[in-house]
Write a structure and sequence with these properties.
The chain is of the alpha/beta class. Helices cover 38% and strands 18% of the residues. The strands form 2 sheets. A 12-stranded mixed beta sheet has the order 3-4-2-1-5-12-11-6-7-10-8-9, sandwiched between helices. It has a two-stranded antiparallel ribbon with strand order 13-14. The longest helix has 31 residues. The chain starts with a strand and ends with a strand. 46% of the residues are buried.
């Protein structure tokens, strides 16, 4: 039996729906039999939002200063914000942005130290955080820099659909100039390994979308498909990656062709996320592939208009928690399998397998 994991959960923007979906996701005490939650934020804000939620039974909490002090049968709260922290539900403020940054920083430090096993991040307000000097356009870009990886892939995950994107949080006008054959190929490599290691799919099939309407109509509406995307698909095939396309997104999703593939690679943010959220919004999870740690997040934003009104749906947060646990366990199993195979093939070497790489 897999051991009970320690799940770190950042509060996100305290003026949004983060605390509400976290509280609702952890309200059933049976979750404590499956994992140990550690919330990074404020016990004061936790208590404030708990009072706004109806039909929530007593939640046994353990207020701590460090993840080293967790109680395995309680909802742990790492108090990393000042006691006088102020809550303004529905309002993006300087204080809420700074608090989100502090909570995230503490959680990152703890997962690097091995005090938590996986990281689940509640929604932030990107503009407010950038205004306070965050320096990144989202969690994904921050984590890429923080863990020193060359490239990651944002993959939206549900039971029936997985969608990655080539370009992330950039203006639409910059998309065409930001895609290249090598960038697409790099994303396909990350997605293939992630589908194998994180989701247990042995030979994943990945559909690649075009950029222009009707995939450019043979160059009439754009040449990126023929000059950039198709060569990337061909090179991926040469490397043993089962990539197919490019496909015109409207027909691809409209006809349900996504069901024939294990994952889809879109060229830009809304091309992939709009159909994903239309098909799987309540159960959707944002997963960052290519990191040395497991990080997931709900597929929704701060939803200020709902904050403090007991209206938020916790299913995406719940899915984020359980997906993170599943991915962690899948990685452990995959790495043991790879390490075992290598020891059989090269018994005289001491080998460790991590992320599909062999280190002598």
């Amino acid at each position: 039996m897999a051991r009970k994991l320690i799940v770190g959960i950042t509060q996100g923007d305290g003026n949004g729906i983060g605390y509400e979906v976290i509280i609702k996701a952890l309200a059933d005490e049976r979750v404590l039999d499956m994992f140990t939650p550690v919330i990074y934020g404020s016990s004061k804000i936790f208590g404030f939002y708990k009072k706004q939620i109806h039909n929530i039974e007593q939640i046994n909490t353990n207020v701590i200063n460090s993840a080293k002090d967790i109680h395995n049968k309680r909802v742990n709260i790492v108090n990393c914000l000042p006691d006088n922290v102020f809550v303004e539900p529905g309002q993006p403020t300087s204080e809420s942005a700074k608090s989100a940054m502090t909570a995230l920083s503490r959680a990152i430090a703890d997962i690097k130290a091995g005090d938590i096993d996986v990281l689940v991040t509640a929604p932030i307000n990107k503009r407010a955080m950038v205004n306070e000097g965050f320096g990144y356009t989202g969690h994904t870009e921050y984590l890429e820099k923080e863990f020193g990886v060359d490239e990651i892939a944002m993959i939206m995950v549900s039971e029936s659909l997985k969608v990655g994107v080539v370009t992330g949080h950039i203006p639409l006008k910059d998309v065409a100039g930001s895609i290249s054959t090598e960038k697409i190929l790099s994303k396909l490599r990350i997605m293939k390994l992630s589908l194998q290691r994180d989701f247990g799919i042995d030979s994943p099939k990945i559909a690649v979308l075009g950029l222009n309407p009707h995939c450019g109509d043979g160059g009439l509406l754009g040449e990126e498909e023929q000059q950039i995307i198709l060569p990337a698909v061909q090179k991926a095939n040469e490397e043993g990656i089962l990539a197919f396309g490019p496909y015109s997104p409207d027909g691809f999703f409209g006809l349900g062709n996504y069901a024939k593939y294990d994952a889809v690679l879109a060229m830009y943010h809304d091309q992939g996320l709009a159909p994903f959220k239309a098909l799987a919004f309540e159960q959707g999870v944002n997963f960052t592939a290519g990191l040395p740690i497991v990080r997931t997040s709900p597929d929704h934003g701060t939803a200020y208009e709902m904050a403090g009104r007991d209206l938020a749906d916790p299913h995406s947060m719940m899915a984020s928690i359980y997906t993170a646990i599943d991915i962690y366990n899948s990685r452990e199993a995959y790495d043991r399998l790879v390490e075992g195979r290598m020891k059989v093939q090269m018994p005289d070497l001491e080998i460790k397998a991590r992320g599909g790489k062999i280190i002598e």
